[in-house]
Structure formats: C-alpha cells, structure tokens
Amino acid sequence: MTILDQINNNKRREIAEAKEKISVEDLKKSPFFNRTPNSLKAALRLPGASGIIAEFKTKSPSKGMINEEAEVAEVTAGYVEAGVSGLSVLTDLNYFGGSFDNLAKARFTNPRTPILRKDFMLDPYQVYEAKAHGADLILLIAASLSKEEMLKMTELAKELQLEVLVEVHTEEEIEKLNPLVDLVGVNNRNLKTFEVDVETSVRLGKLLPDDLIRISESGLSSVENIHYLRKHGFEGFLMGENFMKTDDPAQACIDFIAQLNA
C-alpha cells in the first residue's frame, strides 16, 4: 500500500465523520457560500504575473514537521505582499497539519487573492466544504479518482463557481482530464517513491491540451527552475516547502520573487 493509499483510506473515514456532523444544507448556510470566487486562471494571465502559488503547510509525509511556528494570516499576507499569483492552503490535518481554520484565516486576510483548497478530494461533499470555507478552487488528484469521479467532481465545482486544478504525474492520468478542467498541475514528486524530478513537468507538459494552463508542482527551489519551466509553457509554479522551511516564509517569498523579477 502506497502513502497515497493510506492517506485516501484515512480521508474516507474523515469524510464519513464530517457528513455525520455537518450536512450539505448547513454548509450552504456559510457566509462564504454566496461570495464570488477569485480566478486563479485570470491571475496567472495578468501582465507581469509572477506565477508563484505559495503554499501554507506546516508538515508533510516526506519531510515531517516543516514549520510549527508559522502563523497563517501573517505568512499568507506576506506572500501576497511579495506578489504571488495565488495561495494554496492545506486542509488535511493528519498528514499535513492543515485545517479549515487556516483556510478561513487566509481568506479573511487576503479577500482578493485566489486560494486553492489543497486536500485529498474524493467525494462531492468536499467540494461543498471548499466553497463553504472560502476556497476559490479545488485540487483533484488524478491518481485518486476515476475519469467518471473526476467529471462528477468537476461538474459540481463549476456549479459552485469554483475553478478546478487537476494534478497528474503520469501519462495515463492525462486521459482522465475533461473539458471543464481549468488548470493542470504536473506533480514532479512520484507519489509512490516520493522522488522529485522537475523533468516530469517538461515531459508531461508536452502531452497536455494547448488550452490548459500548466502548473508545475513540487521540488521547485530556484529562480532557474521557474525560468526553465516558463520556456516549456508553464505559467504557474506551486511552491511551499521552499518558503515554509525558513524562519520567515513571507520574507523568503519576497526575496525569491524579487530575484525572479531582477
């Protein structure tokens, strides 16, 4: 059993428990449910956009604890000040130290910035959760969903005016994409071995439909990485650990984007 299998099994238990506590009808009563979401697609296409999607996460299965002192409102505000195109906030507690509280704090602090709910999305119920807690888009991991499940989740997200980022890491997973998907992320980390190779983005990027915005995920640590991937058609760059592992993630992001724009 892979780590992804373990995470998904745990997530299914969490979803079942959540459904017992809060109904979809209750989620629809959230004040966030009637807000108009921000568009990451539009943000990435703005002239001079950095393309950086900065992530807030305090731990990961591959690295363990990354930064237990970081405060989400302070860090995400700093990311936005640095000039990121979007934010990613983990909501998985067990494996990534995330929470809906972190998502809500990031939302209140950064009302006009696109925010991705980063989690392991396996059930339509979670799409309602994302909307209710202030997310602008959701992540669907192709390795975790069938083509039919992905279509169902995407259709619901579009109903709720949320954008959809689909993550792939193999050629076969590209076949699961559907016309409603907004953005495609190529995960440079092998979900079975956790090895990272930026060339995965280059290789799979060539196989993606021309109309989809390409986002490279995992293992991005240098300005050279970003320049290289831009030459291969990537417009978005999901970065978390590179900033979060420092004593001051916001300043690390400010310095990085300053170098990127130099």
From TrEMBL:
<keyword id="KW-0822">Tryptophan biosynthesis</keyword>
<feature type="coiled-coil region">
    <location>
        <begin position="1"/>
        <end position="28"/>
    </location>
</feature>
<dbReference type="GO" id="GO:0000162">
    <property type="term" value="P:L-tryptophan biosynthetic process"/>
</dbReference>
<keyword id="KW-0057">Aromatic amino acid biosynthesis</keyword>
<dbReference type="InterPro" id="IPR045186">
    <property type="entry name" value="Indole-3-glycerol_P_synth"/>
</dbReference>
<keyword id="KW-0028">Amino-acid biosynthesis</keyword>
<keyword id="KW-0175">Coiled coil</keyword>
<dbReference type="InterPro" id="IPR013798">
    <property type="entry name" value="Indole-3-glycerol_P_synth_dom"/>
</dbReference>
<keyword id="KW-0210">Decarboxylase</keyword>
<protein>
    <recommendedName>
        <fullName>indole-3-glycerol-phosphate synthase</fullName>
        <ecNumber>4.1.1.48</ecNumber>
    </recommendedName>
</protein>
<dbReference type="GO" id="GO:0004425">
    <property type="term" value="F:indole-3-glycerol-phosphate synthase activity"/>
</dbReference>
<dbReference type="Pfam" id="PF00218">
    <property type="entry name" value="IGPS"/>
</dbReference>
<dbReference type="InterPro" id="IPR013785">
    <property type="entry name" value="Aldolase_TIM"/>
</dbReference>
<dbReference type="InterPro" id="IPR011060">
    <property type="entry name" value="RibuloseP-bd_barrel"/>
</dbReference>
<dbReference type="GO" id="GO:0004640">
    <property type="term" value="F:phosphoribosylanthranilate isomerase activity"/>
</dbReference>
<keyword id="KW-0456">Lyase</keyword>
<comment type="pathway">
    <text>Amino-acid biosynthesis; L-tryptophan biosynthesis; L-tryptophan from chorismate: step 4/5.</text>
</comment>
<feature type="domain" description="Indole-3-glycerol phosphate synthase">
    <location>
        <begin position="4"/>
        <end position="252"/>
    </location>
</feature>
